[in-house]
Amino acid sequence: MSIHDPAVVDKGATLSDPRPIPALRPGARVGTPFPDDGPGACGQCAVRCERVVYPSGCQESGCERLYVYERDGRQVMGCLDKVFWAEIDVERFRDLQRTRAGFGGLRVWREPNAVCHCAIERIFDHRPHGPCVNPAFVEATPAVPR
């Protein structure tokens, strides 16, 4: 049976079908909420802002919500509160931290805690835009503790 077999083709589908196409991302897990829902992104204008959290800040501040365990012979770390969704290979994290750019930030998945090191990244800043249409999104980002 091939994809061109009439028995396989969705008879109701057309090129202008308004049904959403599921987002397939590398590393996506079945059953996880779509990342555009929630505190991590604002898409109300053409710029598209994302709130990111820096796992390096979790280590520096000694955050009690950061966990580390061994999986398949490698140490992996993550956030108990799922402020960021990803689990990070500790060895690779340390390797990247030694570079000038560092590990970088991960998109916020859930509301950050007061100790989280967060920032706003403007994804399409090159697009023409006026003033921010959602200043509450920017103001809700916790200040980086010093």
Largest sheet: 4 strands, antiparallel
The number of helical runs is 3
The share of residues in helices is 10-25%
Tell me, rounded to a whole number, the average pLDDT.
Answer: 77
- Rg from C-alpha positions? 20 Å
The share of residues in extended strands comes to 15-25%
Distance between the termini: 62 Å
Strand element count: 7
Uncertain regions spanning at least 5 consecutive residues: 1-14, 19-28
- Helical/strand content category: alpha+beta
Shape: elongated
SSE string, helices as H and strands as E: EEHEEEHEEH
Explain the overall architecture.
This protein has 146 residues and is an alpha+beta fold. The protein has a domain at 41-139. It is 14% helix and 19% strand. It has three helices and seven strands; from the N terminus they run E-E-H-E-E-E-H-E-E-H. Strands 1, 2, 6 and 7 form a four-stranded antiparallel β-sheet that branches. The protein has a three-stranded antiparallel β-sheet with strand order 3-4-5. Strand 3 (66-71) and strand 4 form a beta hairpin. 12% of the residues are buried.
